[in-house]
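User: quick one, fold this
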Amino acid sequence: MGGAVLNAFRGAGLSLGRLPPGPRCTITDVPGVRVGHRTIVRGSGEGAIRTGVTAILPPGDPYAEMLPAGAFALHGHGKAVGLWQVLHLGTLETPILLTNTLAVFRCADALITWTLSRHPEARSINPVVLECNDGGQK
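Assistant:
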């Protein structure tokens, strides 16, 4: 929700969830959560690139700690890797990456590589990557 909408929402005495919002009303209000983003802009006109990736890093070591997690599918459309295991087991093993449609599986591979660099003994890793369409039709 945008700031003005959220302020009106709260001003009407409404709230989301059971817990109070943080001071900035952002995901980084959660202690230890870090967020990073990389935007790529190249060219103009036909064939221009406007894309990026956002990484949500939970506190601690998600693979070693198997952090509690949940998920909700708002409309069931889109590419997602790892979401079903989160829904069924209720745990998170990696950071969460958000990217464009065509980069989902590359990002999943990167999360596996990243986790293996920290846990070479791992035999099963559930990377979590979600996408948003960068635009266009099929």
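User: anything notable?
Assistant: Residues 104-118 form the longest helix (15 residues).
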